[in-house]
Amino acid sequence: MTAYELLTRNLEDIRAMLEDHGCLLNCLKEEGDTPVLLSHSVSGCPYKQRLRETLLETIQALEESRKAFKSKQLEALRKKLIGVLAEIA
Question: What per-residue confidence (pLDDT) applies to 60?
């Protein structure tokens, strides 16, 4: 990838993020200053949405199996995934 292509791609990403932020501002303007739900979260990137969904499913499965296995490694993994999910949300 050339420097020009990289900058073009980054500019497209910035434009998409600005559009997302504009949508969030409109939602807040219409609905009042209420907590923003995941459905209104920033970034319409389908890969990011799929990653978020997969992380939620994985965390839920680890939570459900927590009592059956009582593994410190699985607990640490679950907490790490929750941290990653918080970062991308």
Answer: 86
